[in-house]
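Lab manual, section 2.4: Encoding a predicted structure.

Procedure: take the sequence of the chain (264 residues), apply the prediction step described in section 2.3, and record the output as structure tokens. A sample record is shown.
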Amino acid sequence: MLEHLIPVSRKHSIGKVTATIFLPQKMLKPENIFNKLTNNQEFARIYPKRNLIHLHNISINANDNSLNTQTKEKLGFTFENYDERGRLSNVFKLENRSDNQATISFETRTYTTWENFYSSLEHNLKLFSESFPFYIAAISLVYNDNFSWVTDSPIPVREIFRADSELISEKFLNSDSSNSSVLSQTFDESFAYEERVEIAFSNRVKKVTISHHFVKRFDNLELSSDILENNIFRDSYQNAHDINKDVLKDILSDAVLEKIGLKK
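Recorded output:
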């Protein structure tokens, strides 16, 4: 019966993956960084579309109810590329979130393999760090898995999910449409992290979605040029990737795992 359950890709169910680097300070004059990266031939080759992110203030004129928009400052930028069909493929982004935090993120919507994704992430960060070294306070990895149910019959929830998983409740399994969110923290001598798992399905839109958020905070601030040259960065992301696979194996049935290449 699960022939009607279609992963977003023929080989996997990953619709989007986002790796984020948290900086313990804002980046001054992001437009200067934007201009320098734009003039970097390698970065310009990878990302043909580039835009600054602006902070806008919107006010209403009391006399005629018209909207006035004022650009206050530049918060960051995005670099984008597209696949051969013109669909958004990868996004590299810098954004100042507050006076004491900025983020650098790499997102792909055309995921192939973990090795390809991590290689692109590391290459992007090395190009950035060569011109603008930065400190890393934490990292995150977010996987979004998507399935479509392509028939009018109800989604067979008990055939898709494991009833014995601690992340799946009986109420969830008995619903017509439902969502579940679980937040957890793990601490040991070698590794500490936080994760959130969100699981949802809807018989109205015929979709099944799983989102896994992983966050690791470093005990000490790590300089980008140092962390990219040792195993800390790679090992942290590899651990996040492995935990994501474990989550999917915990909540999805063997039949679904076989569909997405996770059942050995």
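Check your result against the sample. Residues 182 and 197 are 5 Å apart (CA to CA).
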